[in-house]
TrEMBL record:
Family label: Belongs to the transglycosylase MltG family.
The UniProt record lists the keyword Cell wall biogenesis/degradation: yes
Species name: Shewanella algae
GO terms, biological process: cell wall organization; peptidoglycan biosynthetic process
UniProt key word Cell wall biogenesis/degradation: yes
A matching Pfam family: YceG
PANTHER family: ENDOLYTIC MUREIN TRANSGLYCOSYLASE
Example GO molecular function: lytic endotransglycosylase activity
InterPro entries: MLTG-like (IPR003770)
EC assignment: 4.2.2.29
UniProt KW keywords: Cell inner membrane, Cell membrane, Cell wall biogenesis/degradation, Lyase, Membrane, Transmembrane, Transmembrane helix
Name used for this protein in its record: Endolytic murein transglycosylase
Length: 335
């Protein structure tokens, strides 16, 4: 009896030792699995369709030769069921990712993000060409007009009404959602700046401020010059002088513009040719940024009526036509 008891105890001890050994081995194997880097050298997109299960994900990762879909993956799901609650979407797998780091993102729904940058100084036509190049974005036939209509703007004139900025989105996002953010942001910025404007500027509405800001945006890329450029245009408006600014002529030419403006172009009667019309053109000619809006609302207190390019991005400002002509001769005609 005593021998049987000893034998039984020895058997149990052997089983326990074996179980502990197997458990220790399995624990080490799972830790090794969890820390093993996926087999890829460059970022790769992973699309998880709605309803994809944890086990289907393992099979997909094996199909992409990123890991072995074996007992490690299946046991990990059994031991950590919270890590099987993966969410659909488009994800980015990075070099250095492990099964666990990837699963953590999939469970959190930390999808890959993309950026849409609406650059200031660009037109709607230029933005539309750019939007066609973006990945994973749902673009309708006339997104800018659609947003205007949805926001109660029935003018059909989208130019300048969308705020230039960088917007984040995920795969499958509707472009109209981002453009709505841009439209609302422009309206908010414009209204705030209009309310705090210099009351002496000869503008009747926020829309006229937007138009003037678009011209300022196109005329200079130097931050320190915006206030002076704004002052020139405001001073000319006060004196009922034509603005005579080339960017408005170019805008009025549309797709005909080939990089050069001729005397014929300057004489052409278009609603945007400020060499022919008095006052502002009927719409903005591009998308102004916040700094251009501020410059239009708060021009510098200077008496300049003219400016000419130095051909290095900067300008020479003049109070009189004689001063201006001398600057033109020096920098444009090289006399």
């Amino acid at each position: 009896m005593k021998k049987c008891l000893v034998a039984a105890l020895a058997f149990v001890f052997t089983l326990m030792t074996l179980a502990l050994g197997v458990g220790f081995w399995g624990y080490n194997e799972l830790n090794r699995f969890a820390a093993t880097k996926l087999k890829l050298d460059e970022p790769r997109e992973l699309l998880l369709k709605r309803g994809t299960s944890f086990y289907q994900l393992g099979q997909e990762l094996q199909n992409q030769q990123l890991l072995e879909f074996d007992w490690h993956w299946k046991l990990w799901g059994k031991l950590y069921p919270q890590m099987t609650a993966i969410r659909s979407g488009l994800y980015q797998i990075e070099p250095g990712d492990t099964p666990v780091s990837l699963l953590e993102r999939l469970v959190a729904g930390d999808e890959k993000t993309f950026t849409l940058t609406l650059v200031e100084g660009k037109t709607i036509r230029e933005w539309q060409a750019y939007l066609q190049t973006l990945a994973h974005l749902k673009v309708s036939d006339k997104p800018f007009i659609d947003v205007l209509e949805a926001q109660g703007d029935s003018s059909g004139l989208p130019e300048g009404k969308f705020f230039p900025d960088t917007y984040q989105y995920r795969a499958g996002t509707e472009l109209n959602t981002l453009l709505t953010q841009s439209f609302i942001k422009m309206q908010q910025q414009l209204e705030s700046i209009w309310q705090q404007r210099d009351q002496s500027i000869p503008l009747k509405s926020p829309y006229e401020l937007l138009i003037l800001a678009s011209i300022i945006e196109k005329e200079t890329g130097l931050a320190e010059e915006r206030g002076k450029i704004a002052a020139v245009f405001v001073n000319r408006l006060k004196k009922r002088m034509r603005l005579q600014t080339d960017p408005t002529v170019i805008y009025g030419m549309g797709e005909r513009f080939d990089g050069n403006i001729t005397r014929k172009d300057l004489r052409e009667e278009t609603p945007f040719n400020t060499y022919r019309i008095f006052g502002l053109p009927p719409t903005p000619i591009a998308a102004p940024g916040r700094e251009a809006l501020l410059a239009a609302a708060h021009p510098e207190a200077v008496e300049y009526l003219y400016f000419v390019s130095r051909n290095d991005g900067s300008h020479v400002f003049s109070r009189t036509l004689a001063e201006h002509n001398r600057a033109v001769n020096q920098y444009q005609r090289k006399r």
